[in-house]
Amino acid sequence: MTDARRPSRRGIIARALRWLVLAVVILIAGLILGLLAYRVLPVPSTLMLGRWLTLQPVERQWVPLTQISPALVRAVIASEDQRFCSHAGVDWIELNAVLDDEDGPSRGASTLTMQTAKNVFLWPGRSYLRKGLEIPLALAIDFAWPKPRIIEVYLNVAEWGDGIFGAEAAAQYYFKKPAARLSGAEAARLAGALPNPILRNPARPSRALQAAAGRVQRRVAQLGPLGDCALPD
Length: 233
Known about the structure:
GO terms for molecular function: pentosyltransferase activity; peptidoglycan glycosyltransferase activity. This protein has 233 residues and is an all-alpha fold.
């Protein structure tokens, strides 16, 4: 009787597959709902959520894109993703160039959309799994959100120091002014700090940050109106 009641191996596998399919369906449905909700609602980052759960301070004031200086929008595009306005979430040209590097990847190929996907839906840290998930998420975000919304979310969740998130908090902390009043030089320093926001201080820039800000300003000039797709109407 005991053997008759014991589930067969085939039954166990079938049940596991059903649960797996159900989990995937729930995950996809949750992602779709999240994309639709985050198209209009203020968005937290997973890093912010982690700090809240561990009772660490978070400085962030959500502001619409109309209250962020266009200089910062252009500086971030010029610094992080110069083909932002022309790709569909993933810069395949840059990605292929990195993968074809004979000496191995020496730089990143994450677009602003991929960084937004990581900040909003994935976990911090580096792994091939997370990087692999960034690509389909970035494609979905680019399909669901207009370019100005992607930049708006990115600039409101980007980390600019220990517990400092978003352009408004960064502008107030470093320059004692709202993000709408940032100058071109200040915007370039904020953009130049993004690769290492914990160690780089835009208010007291090191030589390395000053050099990075100079490169950002030159790229902004070269980019011209090609970065204007992210500006509010």
